[in-house]
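Researcher: Sequence recovery benchmark, item below. Answer with residues only.
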């Protein structure tokens, strides 16, 4: 399977920043001046198709066809009353969507796994993975299920097309729920973009751009050096293994945080709010909280459309633990067609089972999200450290190409006897990078904290966001349209623009 990653305009590319995005916004504003709301929606649909088909047109008909099929299925589910017919339509819709996902993403994985188990020699197929298929498949599944449950309506084709296609969230999320996005298209405010939207959206986008090119891409070679050595079968010492694992932990943190910021910022340029998808997950005090902060919309989808339909916690503790494991195993497989991703999902499923079992034995304290009494900071510190180390260990499987490479890195992380030995990769100054970025992660406010006075994401998710609720207080360190903040953002932008020559795709584009 090949991922068509370079067939698309990356958010951190010159053609996107200086040509496509400005033209998209200008066209949208001009249509808004004419009070032509349907024209604005059609313009954004056109821009989204152009964005998706940039340099790679082969999957545009696939995406357009999938939109039409799901639009028709949703209309039938809403307008038909025969329960047998509606159930049949839902099953057919789910089979269609999951069938496309399984064919493009998992066919070769299943063939390879079968060959290894059976000793056969079936050849691999030349399949190119359509970008974003994992994300927009989940969006359409959620829509069809909600139509079947009577929780959605039959939207017109333009609105539905924009809901699926809206380019800021098309490739790597957030996994937007129809009830969050489509109603915005009907508001009087939506087709009028204000200067505040431009300022806030542009600032969030530039913060994300800085995170991507100046932080995530800068630390990526330090992670690749260690994991590349492990992939080649070279042993890795204690210090190198830990610094390599931490480097990747920080790389994926700032990479995904950057994409989430840029998606929210771009949407805001059009007066559209996307849901929060990333909320300082490494500050979590346990794995339950981690999954409320990391890839928030994916966690929500897995909970609402997989974990709860499986039975959730309604059928006893043992069944709850089984449902958690199944959900996380499938969540791991969703991230990538490899056994290492399944192992990553298994570890997080195990973490969640242990976390829930511990809370059951201990009993939830005043802070019900953690089960740890708020007043005892030493326990909170220990809980946060334990959670972070568990997450770092699981990332090894996420990053490693094979189990053998993951084993080498994990053995190095456990080999305390090699601590006194020389660092193989010390010339890369990884210690300085890792230390500095760890300090930024744990000590600095995140983007929604900085922008909290200007409603950076959908109000809907504010009650689920610990950090946003926490910093809404007088005197908080927040962004305002002042000369000082303009200078800070300008400096960050300059640092990012000078590095645009080395464009790299976002990690989540591969999923």
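Model:
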């Amino acid at each position: 399977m090949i991922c068509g990653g370079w067939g698309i305009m990356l958010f951190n590319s010159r053609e996107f920043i200086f040509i496509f995005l400005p033209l998209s916004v200008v066209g949208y504003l001009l249509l808004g001046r004419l009070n032509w709301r349907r024209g604005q929606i059609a313009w954004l649909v056109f821009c989204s198709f152009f964005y998706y088909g940039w340099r790679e047109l082969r999957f545009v008909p696939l995406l357009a066809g999938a939109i039409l099929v799901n639009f028709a299925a949703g209309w039938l589910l809403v307008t038909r009353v025969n329960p047998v017919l509606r159930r049949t339509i839902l099953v057919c819709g789910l089979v269609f969507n999951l069938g496309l996902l399984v064919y493009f993403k998992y066919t070769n994985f299943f063939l390879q796994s079968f060959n290894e188990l059976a000793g056969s020699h079936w050849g691999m197929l030349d399949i190119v993975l359509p970008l974003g298929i994992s994300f927009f498949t989940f969006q359409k599944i959620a829509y069809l299920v909600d139509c079947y449950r009577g929780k959605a309506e039959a939207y017109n084709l333009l609105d539905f097309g924009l809901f699926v296609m809206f380019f800021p969230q098309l490739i790597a999320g957030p996994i937007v729920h129809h009830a969050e996005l489509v109603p915005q298209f009907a508001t009087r405010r939506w087709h009028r973009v204000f200067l505040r939207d431009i300022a806030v959206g542009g600032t969030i986008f530039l913060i994300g751009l800085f995170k991507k090119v100046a932080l995530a891409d800068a630390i990526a070679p330090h992670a690749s050096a260690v994991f590349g050595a492990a992939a080649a079968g070279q042993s890795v010492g204690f210090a190198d293994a830990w610094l390599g694992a931490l480097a990747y932990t920080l790389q994926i943190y700032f990479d995904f945080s950057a994409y989430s910021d840029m998606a929210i910022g771009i949407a805001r340029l059009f007066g559209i709010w996307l849901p929060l998808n990333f909320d300082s997950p490494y500050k979590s005090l346990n794995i339950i909280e981690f999954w409320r902060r990391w890839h928030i919309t994916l966690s929500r989808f897995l909970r609402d459309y997989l974990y709860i339909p499986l039975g959730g916690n309604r059928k006893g503790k043992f069944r709850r633990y089984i449902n958690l494991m199944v959900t996380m195993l499938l969540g791991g497989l969703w991230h990538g067609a490899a056994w290492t991703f399944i192992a990553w999902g298994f570890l997080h499923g195990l973490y969640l089972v242990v976390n829930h079992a511990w809370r059951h034995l201990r009993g939830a304290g005043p802070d019900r999200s953690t089960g740890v009494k708020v007043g005892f900071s030493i326990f909170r510190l220990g809980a946060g450290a334990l959670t972070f180390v568990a997450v770092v260990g699981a990332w090894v499987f996420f990053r490693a190409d094979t189990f053998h490479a993951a084993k080498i890195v994990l053995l190095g992380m456990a080999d305390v006897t090699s601590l006194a030995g020389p660092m193989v990769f010390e010339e890369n100054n990884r210690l300085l990078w890792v230390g500095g970025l760890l300090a930024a992660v744990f000590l600095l406010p995140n983007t929604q904290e900085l922008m909290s006075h200007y409603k950076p994401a959908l109000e809907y998710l504010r009650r689920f966001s610990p950090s946003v609720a926490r910093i809404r207080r007088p005197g908080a360190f927040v962004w305002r349209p002042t000369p000082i903040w303009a200078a800070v953002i300008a400096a960050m932008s300059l640092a990012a623009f000078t590095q645009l020559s080395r464009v790299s795709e976002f990690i989540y584009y591969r999923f």
